[in-house]
Amino acid sequence: MCWRNTLGLLLLVFVQRISAQIPSVKSFTSSSSSFLVDSNVRIVVDPAFANSGSPSLFGFAQTFRSDLVSVTGLNNISQVQTGDASSITAPTVFLTLGPSNSSNLTLFNGKSTVEGYSFEITEKLYTIRGVEAIGAFWGTRTFLQQVILSISGGSNPATIPTGTGEDNPGWEVRGFMLDVGRHWVETTFLADLCIYASFFKLNEFHIHASDFVPNTDILQSANWRELYTGFRFQPPSDSPVFGVVPELNESWTQEQFTTLQTTCSDHGITIIPEIDTPAHSVVITKWKPELMIAGSPDLLNITFPETIPTVKSIWNALLPWFTSSEVSIGADEYSEDLANDYITFVNDMNQYISETSGKSVRVWGTNEPSMTESISTNVTIQHWWFPGGSIPVQLMEQGYSIINSDQVFLYLDGKFSDEGQYPWSLNATLLWSGAPDGKGWAPNIFSTTDSTNNTSIDNPLLRGSIMALWNDWGNNATTPLELYYQLAQTLTQDGFENIYSILNAAAPGQNLNRATGLPAGSEVFSYDNIPSKSLPLQTNFRSVGPPYTFSFSVKPTHSDSELSSIVLFTGMDSILYLDSLSFEDAVTKIRYPLGIDLPLDTFTSVEIHATVNHTYALLNSSSEPVYWTSDLSIRGAFMQLVNMSFAAPSHIIGGSGFKGELANVSLKLGD
Fold first, then answer.
1. Which of 25, 265, 314, 507 registers the highest number of CB atoms within 10 A of its CB?
2. 171 in Cβ contact with 463 (< 8 Å)
């Protein structure tokens, strides 16, 4: 059984004596007794290995304790200790390192992996033995999932069946990618995604950090500089490449990115940064237009003497930021007519990055038809386009390492898919039965119909896979939380849905669901009458995620000239303005008007209903919903109306400038 690539997705669950989990463990043999997880449980680290690894085994243990407190509510669990587990009196989770009793902790291709672990459970001692520290950390994820599922099944305190088992991934690379070059997001949100993903044992987060929002008409006109571009790494102001950043308030400082990498690393996830060149490069040609191919601002002129040195200078400024052993230089969708130039660029950048930093390079795999040149085989090809682009099995025959990101199986696009090419969430039918043999997808599957274009799971050059969420339509297509909803959307196969919903709701270390801890259908808060002198009123809930129903009656007394700045409700993720009942995304600062102005000096009752797919209002008990929407420009060819989903602005009732009355304010869970 492999650890498939998942963000709550792409998993096949096998029910065993130890409760089914995501992903399922490789093997487990149980006995009839149980290990009790109550407030007496201790976490002890073998002193011989406490400082092993980076993060260390002891550091992972501290993360484990914090997560265990989160999922159990047992705040009095003692701090992590080092010591010998041979003489124990209380239930103890003991973390150590060393070889497994079996020799089966290898990847499908037979290579050894540091991510494996074995576990032995008695009534008093739960031993997790990692090959290295990261292996022990994945063992703690197994423990936490078992605790969550035990509690959800009615056992409180949780119990875990005794027995022995072992586990390891089948694939070296198990990742997800987010396009932040076209959609601004803050590092705190990305950190939460890492924490969430690690709960399901993903180990890579590929960040596509530079790009532009496409509009063919504008790109090919004199107004191409008007296109939205993003370059998310902000060099210091005295850096020679400081000018490449188009919007400083939409970029990350080195300190912010370092903190992000540390948070992700502390949860077993490596960030793979991508700066995309020589195509997708409008952000660079805005800065230095002399570097572009005439008439094609998105393509760098590789043969221009200053182009490659400029790209190298960008990497030179940023390589010291990156703690990963690999980076992506993008390198897709360049002109096929310039194949030799492209190959020269990739090889030059590969050599430069390797010699400068010791890091390896990845590129997106497209078709470069050259009869004389070839990309170095020490460059990993991240395959995405088939048929029509590179053919993975042929590349592996030529000695290239491959990561599967095939668009048919693994691509999503924020909110809208051009020509219906990509689904809102990954296609369950394809993932569970889309292989040519009718069985489930795995990273060795590239074609749904032709088995000759697929390879075996033990191919030594197949590294794994990465699912991708693109943001082709820019900031106003989605809010950051909507991106999470797409990434975390569940499959609906038997045995999976119930398990995933339980684990998703309880995943520790973050609160991307903006959950309240209250059961479905609960009333979060209710205020019948709020005296004006009590406004603004602060609640205990910074933000509440859908589904919810947010009701209130409002009697504004403002002049029309004041409306645009008047805030009704404020939350961590969204703000609701009086003017046209506009929601504002707190991250991008984009407003989404409902298009309805409330009458002055008169009470209007408003019910806001939200799911992860939409938000709508009912006014004065009307049965006709009015939806909050956004109008997307699809490559400049047409406009597309899409629904927006917002978290409830639940933290502050009544802005400081609000004039009028608010009554019957209530927030309930459930739409």
1. 507
2. yes
Counting other chains too, the contacts that 80-85 makes at CB distance below 8 Å and 24 or more residues apart are 80/43, 80/44, 80/45, 81/42, 81/43, 81/44, 81/45, 82/44, 82/45, 82/46, 82/47, 82/50, 82/58, 83/44, 83/45, 83/47, 84/47, 85/44, 85/46, 85/125, 85/127
- Name the DSSP letter for residue 299: E
Which amino acid type is present at position 593?
P
Please indicate, yes or no, if residue 259 is contained in any of the structural domains.
yes
Separation in Å, CA 112 to CA 381, 467, 480:
22, 24, 37
Instruction: Write out pLDDT tens, residues 653-664.
Output: 998 788 899 999
Number of domains forming the structure of the chain: 3
Q: Which domain does 637 fall in, by range?
A: 523-669
pLDDT in tens, 225-256: 999 999 999 999 999 999 999 999 999 999 99
Q: Is 145 part of any domain?
A: yes
pLDDT at 434 over 60: yes
Q: Is 79 exposed, middle or buried (0-12, 13-18, 19+ CB in 10 A)?
A: exposed
In a domain, 488, yes or no: no
User: Cα separation of 133 and 139, whole Å?
Assistant: 10
pLDDT tens per residue, range 78-118: 999 999 988 788 999 999 999 876 668 999 999 999 999 99
Amino acid at 609: H
397 among known catalytic residues: no
Reported as a single tens digit per residue, the pLDDT across 144-192 is 999 999 999 999 899 999 999 999 999 999 999 999 999 999 999 999 9
Which of the following is catalytic: 120, 186, 333, 607?
333
**Last residue of one domain, picked from the residues 134, 167, 200:** 167
| Same domain, residue pair 141 and 190 | no
- If asked whether residues 608 and 464 sit together in one domain, one would say no
Q: Which of 167, 190, 213 is the last residue of a domain?
A: 167
CB 158 within 8 A of CB 147: yes
For residue 9, is pLDDT > 70? no
